[in-house]
Specification:
Elements lengths: L4 H12 L5 H14 L7 H15 L3 E5 L5 H7 L7 E6 L2 H13 L6 E5 L2 H4 L3 H5 L4 E6 L6 H10 L3 E9 L2 H5 L1 H9 L3 E9 L6 E9 L2
Parallel strand pairs: 1-2, 1-4, 2-3, 4-5
Antiparallel strand pairs: 5-7, 6-7
Helix pairs in contact: 1-2, 1-5, 3-4
Bound molecules: the ligand Nc1ncc2ncn(CCCCCNC(=O)c3cc(-c4ccc(F)cc4)cc(O)c3O)c2n1 and magnesium ion (MG).
């Protein structure tokens, strides 16, 4: 019994961040992970790269696979253009419950939909359930071995369009070798690697940005 790490992270947000101020929520989580307990958020260094890609794409429709505590959800949602909307899939109901509260503390609940369940089960139903034609932006941060099957599923379901930008976390650590090989070799993608570090550590990691060419 006792609290879980996500619950302790949420308490740090509620104690340190200002309601409605997404920057203070991001700072509170980074402070908690750097000075109290490491957690698998994309973090501030890779988060800066995520911010620049989201700002460049300025997506009306965005999908995140793997919400965890909602840190990257807040980073993305705070940069969406007017009318923009983010759907984030989370497998673990405890993580989803914490993420909803973190997103609400940041005042971003109107732009975000946290959906509980497995990516593979939900992707085929996103169009009918949420009226999504296709995604402008997809952030991959869930089970590393599901990155490749899930983008193939997104392709098959017609949820990617010419120019859709995929951004994948952890392509070095823990690593997603089959995904990397696929997007770098496929004629359907234009890929670029952004070198960085595993969140809150000096270990090597990075983000792979892949534009779907149709
Ligand atoms: N199917 C489905 N659909 C939807 C879903 N939503 C969540 N899940 C389950 C995903 C569970 C968490 C995924 N994330 C990671 O595992 C992760 C790990 C590290 C890491 C850990 C230890 C180290 F020593 C070094 C690096 C760092 C990261 O940045 C990571 O993102 C889903 N599954
Ligand atoms: Mg990650």
């Amino acid at each position: 019994t006792g609290t879980t790490r996500p619950q302790r992270l949420l308490r740090a947000v509620q104690e340190r961040a200002t309601r409605g101020d997404s920057e203070s929520v991001i700072a509170a989580i980074d402070h908690f992970c750097r000075h109290q307990e490491w957690a698998m958020n994309v973090g501030d260094e890779k988060g800066f790269i995520l911010d620049s890609v989201v700002s460049e794409v300025s997506p009306q429709t965005a999908l995140e696979l793997g919400t965890y505590c909602g840190y990257s959800t807040v980073r993305i949602a705070r940069l969406l253009p007017p009318g923009g909307h983010l759907i984030t899939l989370e497998f673990n109901p405890n993580y989803a419950a914490v993420a909803r509260q973190v997103i609400a503390w940041a005042g971003l609940e109107d732009m975000v939909q946290v959906v509980e369940g497995a990516s593979g089960d939900w992707i085929p139903h996103l169009r009918e359930h949420f009226g999504i034609e296709s995604f402008d932006f997809v952030f991959l941060d869930h089970w590393k071995e599901l990155y490749l099957p899930d983008i193939k599923l997104l392709e098959e379901c017609g949820l990617l369009r010419k120019g859709t930008v995929l951004l994948a976390d952890n392509v070095i650590c823990p690593g997603t070798p089959d995904y990397l090989e696929y997007v770098r070799k496929s004629q359907s993608y234009e890929s670029h690697y952004f070198g960085s570090h595993l969140e809150y550590t000096r270990a090597e990691d990075g983000l792979e940005k892949s534009v779907y060419l149709g």
